[in-house]
Design brief:
The protein has 479 residues and is an alpha+beta fold. Helix content is 55%, strand content 11%. It has 19 helices and seven strands. It has a five-stranded antiparallel β-sheet, with helices on one face. Strands 1-2 form a two-stranded antiparallel sheet.
């Protein structure tokens, strides 16, 4: 009769040769020769059988094996068994979330999504699998070995990335899961993968688990409307992370700004979002700025920013709330016909996508006497409004051409808007011959204190360099 050592070695050899089913059959046929205690106390047999069950996709059988042999998962258990159990959890979770496991393009999981940030109610029943992963991760982190760190990284990623890839992620689950993990114990090391883009293979560095924790945690707090925590955690991320990936520095900054907005500090929010916009010209950031200008009753600035957003890259289906905002602005400007058409398109796009239409859209439409625009007329309405939006792009190009023609000459104008007036100086818009020109003035410049609304100035416009914006320089006051 084979000894326990020989029995264990035979299983290990079969596993090493990837003959997993044979290893399981051998165990089943010969286990009777040993007591349950002998088998359960042998970390090699236990870990190898769990691994073989995992490799043959018998995940539930793996958990049943642990139960039959009374294998406890706690901080006193052998590392070999803990890691085998951890990979079993990973495989089981992956199998249950197969539709959400395409991780080829890592960056897509950190691009900020473009949906409405209205607070939602999230409920879920935490399943046994999630609870088991949450219990195991702190135990693995305490081991502090390369094997355990790799496993933690995979468990951490499989749960959060799977949830985020779902059509309707449960951000309460994400937040609660992050709460179970101390980020200071997570790895700050960045790994590199090879990706193929435009027919060429190149290296791409991935974010560390430490950075990922902050990315998921702050996004969950934003989605849950927990603005005070979102503000503090986003600021902490900007302070503690040395090297950002996937534009995370921009998204953390955006969450700081949105937190300030929802905590009642609109002025700082505008300033910070304008700074972010210079780095990342995303339509939803422009939309947020348009909303803030609208709340301040600065209708011209709100309209310009909203039109920039609607002309910016991004599917119109994502911009249904932006259409509603443009309608609100136009209505307040007295352009009721255009307002009605934007409210109507906001409703029709939702209906076409079989999405719920918010009551606020119906409330606005009910104020008009025009006949309802039907779903059959949506295509023509969309074409009409696209032509209207594109008209502003042409106007912008015409203004640029005019400024280029006159850039060698001094222009006369009047300051019609001051955006910021702080320790860094002032910025705003100068109006000249029906065109508006953005200007900045450093706090160190001797005339900055005299630049106020209504101040007449002499200025020059210099052509943009390398795809940037035209530069406006105030020469002197026009007295």
């Amino acid at each position: 009769m084979a000894s326990l050592f020989d029995f264990s070695k035979q299983i290990a050899d079969l596993k090493k040769e990837k003959r997993y089913s044979e290893a399981l059959s051998y165990f089943k046929e010969n286990k009777i020769a040993f007591s349950k205690e002998q088998l359960s106390n042998n970390e090699y047999i236990v870990s190898d059988i769990i691994s073989c069950l995992r490799y043959t996709n018998q995940f539930d059988a793996g958990f049943q094996f642990l139960k039959i042999y009374n294998i406890k998962i706690d901080d006193s258990q052998k590392e070999r068994i803990l890691t085998a159990y951890g990979w079993l959890l990973w495989s089981k979770y992956k199998a249950e979330n197969e539709n959400a496991n395409n991780f080829e393009d890592e960056t897509q999981f950190f691009d900020e999504d473009e949906d409405d940030l209205q607070q939602q109610d999230f409920h879920y029943d935490k399943n046994v699998l999630i609870e088991s992963i949450e219990t195991l991760i702190p135990i693995l982190l305490a081991l502090n070995s390369d094997f355990s760190k790799t496993l933690v990284s995979n468990l951490f990623s499989i749960v959060l990335k799977s949830e985020k890839k779902k059509p309707a992620p449960n951000w309460k689950l994400v937040n609660d899961f992050c709460n179970q993990i101390d980020p200071t114990l997570l790895s700050t090391e960045c790994s590199t993968i090879q990706v193929e883009r435009k027919g060429r293979t190149q290296d791409m560095e991935l974010a560390s688990d430490f950075e990922n924790w902050y990315a998921y945690k702050t996004k969950a707090l934003m989605k849950l409307g927990e603005w005070q925590d979102c503000f503090g955690t986003s600021k902490e991320a900007l302070e503690k992370i040395d090297n950002f990936h996937y534009s995370n520095d921009v998204w953390f900054s955006r969450r700081v700004a949105l937190s300030k907005k929802n905590l009642g500090n609109a002025e700082d929010t505008i300033e910070e979002l304008e700074t972010i916009l210079k780095k990342k010209r995303e339509w939803f950031i422009q939309k947020e700025l348009a909303e803030l200008y609208f709340e301040k009753d600065e209708l011209d600035a709100a309209f310009k920013m909203a039109i920039d957003a609607i002309n910016n890259f991004g599917p119109l289906e994502f911009k249904v709330d932006l259409l509603y905002l443009v309608g609100k602005i136009l209505n307040k400007q007295g352009k009721s016909d255009l307002a009605f058409k934007h409210f109507s398109l906001s409703k029709l796009v939702r209906q076409n996508e079989e999405w719920k239409v918010p009551q606020k859209v119906f409330d606005e439409l009910n104020q008009f006497e025009q006949n309802e625009i039907t779903i059959n007329e949506m295509k023509n309405l969309k074409l009409e409004l696209k032509k209207y939006w594109n008209g502003f792009n042409k106007n912008d190009n015409r203004h640029k051409t005019l400024s280029h023609r006159s850039n060698s000459d001094n222009l006369q104008g009047e300051i019609v808007k001051i955006l910021h007036d702080n320790e860094r100086g002032k910025d705003g818009f100068i109006k000249s011959d029906g065109n508006e020109f953005y200007f900045t003035a450093s706090s160190n410049w001797h005339l900055t204190t005299e630049l106020n609304l209504g101040t007449k100035v002499i200025f020059k416009v210099f052509p943009a360099k390398q795809g940037g914006k035209d530069q406006t320089r105030i020469i002197k006051l026009d007295k």
